[in-house]
Design a protein that fits this description.
Protein name: Phage shock protein PspC N-terminal domain-containing protein
Pfam family, one: PspC
Radius of gyration: 11 Å
Subcellular location: Cell membrane
InterPro entries: Phageshock_PspC_N (IPR007168), PspC (IPR052027)
Membrane topology: Single-pass membrane protein
Amino acid sequence: MNNRAFHLDKSNAKLMGVCSGIANYFDWDVNLIRIGFVLAALFGVGAPVLIYLAIGLIASAR
């Protein structure tokens, strides 16, 4: 882990910048994060849409 704080990446955002923020925080490829969210939403693993919205709203409120 790194000592940086999580933030939304609005410059590379498609919707709210959550996936690009996660990718920047963990230094991963943003496309892998986006594909993971889409697959999770399609296959109904947990509640990825609600999780995405919660992360986006909480991170933008800071």
